[in-house]
Backbone:
């Protein structure tokens, strides 16, 4: 398999690759559900090796450090999404995106508010009115800048769009900001067309010690399930509660 470079455009934190995007890159040669695990921060603008190793795909550095690995996934792990919200409900939820009140990852490829259309994805999930706490939604329209020759959004871009919403599901539920994506098991059943209106949803599943799991899904405007994933996030530090953050924003 050819070597690859994860360009700085596809960052999550400033100096490492966007977790969902990288998971999608190493999983794109697999049919059906795929499980991708990140073992180390993903360096940017550096040539990396992508190798097929006995049915698994490994991403390694020039020094041989294992950065990520993917393999066929277990479909039973994939969560059953709650029903898709309506378009207007998803748009209203996006107005409650935590990153609008307090910059969290402003240059992130997926959720960065500093990124413009065609450069970043601008996926801004917020609490869905009337739903359990942490059940988020937003509207996302894939930009033509990311489309392939057939006008379809590549699977790794879909995986990227589903990355940060799972993180923010726990930010809204518990106010925990410091976490890194460890494992993502996902399936893309239909790639959206460039310019197609879609709805992203996310919801918290279970927290066990430092591990927080989340479900994420992508729907068409009409409610067709396009993609879904199960995520495992590893928390890094305790952050202030989300409700306290909201109160501070309200009094600022």
Residues:
């Amino acid at each position: 398999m050819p070597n690859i470079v994860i360009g700085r455009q596809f960052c999550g934190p400033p100096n490492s690759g966007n977790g969902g995007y990288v998971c999608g890159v190493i999983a794109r040669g697999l049919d059906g559900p795929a499980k991708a695990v990140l073992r180390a921060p993903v360096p940017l603008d550096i040539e990396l090796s992508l190798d097929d190793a006995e049915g698994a795909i490994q991403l390694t550095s020039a020094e041989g450090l294992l950065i990520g690995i993917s393999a066929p996934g277990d479909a039973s792990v994939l969560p059953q999404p709650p029903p898709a919200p309506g378009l207007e409900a998803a748009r209203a939820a996006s107005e409650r995106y935590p990153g609008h009140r307090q910059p969290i990852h402003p240059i992130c490829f997926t959720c960065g508010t500093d990124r413009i259309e065609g450069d970043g994805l601008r996926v801004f999930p917020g609490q869905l009115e009337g739903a359990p706490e942490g059940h988020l939604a937003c509207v996302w329209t894939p930009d033509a800048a990311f489309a392939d020759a057939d006008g379809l959004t590549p699977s790794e871009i879909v995986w990227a769009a589903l990355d940060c919403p799972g993180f923010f599901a726990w930010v809204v539920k518990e106010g925990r900001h410091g976490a890194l994506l460890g494992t993502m098991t996902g399936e893309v059943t239909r790639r959206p067309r460039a310019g197609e209106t879609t709805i992203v949803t996310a919801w918290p599943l279970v927290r066990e010690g430092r591990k927080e799991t989340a479900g994420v899904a992508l729907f068409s405007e009409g409610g067709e399930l396009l993609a879904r994933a199960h995520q495992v996030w590893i928390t890094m530090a305790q952050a202030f509660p989300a409700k306290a953050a909201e109160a501070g924003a309200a009094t600022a």
About this structure: The chain has six helices and eleven strands. The CA atoms of residues 196 and 214 lie 25 Å apart. Residues 239-252 have pLDDT under 50 and may be disordered. The two ends are 53 Å apart (CA to CA).
